[in-house]
Amino acid sequence: MQLKRVAITGVGAITPLGNNVNALISGIESKKSAVEYIPEWDNNVGLRCKVGAAVRMENEKLIPRQNRRSMGRLSIFAVQAAEQAVKDSGIKTEQLTGGKLGCAIGSTMGSAESLAEAFEIMAADKDISNLSSTKFFQCVSHTAAMNTAQYLGITGYVLAPSAACASSLQAIGAGFDLIRLGKQDIMLCGGAEGLHPTVVGSFDVLYATSSNYNKEPKKTPRPFDAKRDGLVCGEGSGILVLEDFDLAKKRGAKIYAEIIGYNTCGNGSHVSESNREAIIFCIQETLKSAGLNPKDIDYINAHATATIQGDKEEANAIREIFGDSVPVSSLKGYIGHTLGASGAIELIASLVMMQKSTIYPTLNLEEPDIDCQGIHHVLQLEEKKIDILLKNCFAFGGINAALICKKYGV
Amino acid sequence: MTEQDAIRMTNEVFADSFEIPKEKLLPEANIFNDLGLDSLDIVDLVVALQKKFQIIIRSDERVRNIRTLGDIYQFILTIKKELNK
Fold first, then answer.
1. For chain A, how many structural domains are there in total?
2. Per-residue pLDDT tens for A28-37?
């Protein structure tokens, strides 16, 4: 069976640096960090990390009430990013409802804020009588996909990969596979996540968060740096329009890049500890799926969240496959770790780097840790032609994912 | 509770919970056809009225007969009267 080619024809993003792709890129180019001290988190007993990268939500009331009532924060982000991506791609309303367009939008879980509210309502007196009708729809794991599909009238596949920090890359991979196989012509793919102290707490209890920079929030997270002390949670959504390459070309669509390789796999060893061998296997399988050698990759957008162990394993895996020949950078220093949205948001920024032949440096990386050396860290903005890029995502639960994009026309 | 209290407080529920402009909140307004509520909204209406008036109406069969805002005003006054007996 001849597999179809898959193009990326639209992008949209809601991020801590601003609520569209231009604002995200402009923030990154000005080396701006969206990480801030969040005073309300002082009320959470035991929470060590008091910094986060929040979205300034706006225009949510433009979403009609009867759509909005089933949306928590992350679904509002997803819907807004999806609207941007659809507009950017130029696809028509009738395509949204034609049955050959689907969506795959992942998140770690449903809206954390809504889940906390639901438990507060129900748990105190074991009484459900004050629970609103739509709280359930805000809390379910497929809330972002479900709400986006309902809002846009999507009648094709509706999928919600839930694999923590690999959710959105898995969603993009699922869309890639569905189009390659001819099951769908177009897929809106990506992820969304909402910032909430309970989410930060899930990392904080494992000592995986940054806690030494609460008074200097702009200095953290510090991917690959000797003084890194953990991740900083962010929020937002990134959505990409994936499209049958031939159909996209036929309608004269703007093509950002072609997806040519993807793999996801379990590490089979530990729920929270990254594993160098498993990362190597994932990247090698991704290269194999694209029919490429390591030397063909021009840029690696790392997962690198600034945890002690995760960064070390990723750097060592990259070193073993690529040596120090391929530039590597992480965007977590600018927008924190947007968890289930990170793969999509960071892929979108990487596509801009591809377009501009420019590599954005890892913010807060001043002195690469001895554990993370031997790879080409990007410390200052680099100008380089990027024909092919690799995006990594590694998740709690021991789930890895990697994706390769090729510049259109190369 | 006076009839005016019931009207004012019910209208506040419709404005706050369902974002309906005050000028549309007339006693004869049908809550489905004129105000646009659907089956999910009715669940939330019951929850909001319970909270607003400190009453329990979740299992009250009379809720099913409500069609207009005026029906709600009268229903609330009836419930309050029953509670005062």
1. 2
2. 999 999 999 9
Q: Domain of A345?
A: 262-407
A125 touches chain B (CB under 8 A): no
Which residue in B18, B43, B58 is closest to A65 by CB distance? B18
Domain-wise residue ranges, chain B: 3-84
What is the chain B residue with the closest CA to A131? B47
Which residues are CB-contacts of B38 (< 8 A; sequence separation ≥ 6)?
A66, B32
* Residue A1 included in any domain: no
The residue to which tokens 């008091």 are assigned: A50
Residue range B20-31, pLDDT digits in tens: 999 999 999 999
| Architecture per CATH, B3-84 | Orthogonal Bundle (1.10)
Q: Are residues A276 and A134 in the same domain?
A: no
Q: Does A402 reside within a domain? A: yes
Nearest CA in chain A to B52: A130
Quote the longest CA-to-CA distance of chain A: 63
CB pair distance less than 8 Å for A129 and B47: yes
Q: What are the pLDDT digits (tens) for A252-270?
A: 999 999 999 999 999 888 8
Helix residue ranges per DSSP H, A104-253: 112-123, 135-139, 143-152, 167-180, 197-204, 245-250
**Among residues A333, A344, A335, which one has the least CA distance to residue A107?**
A344
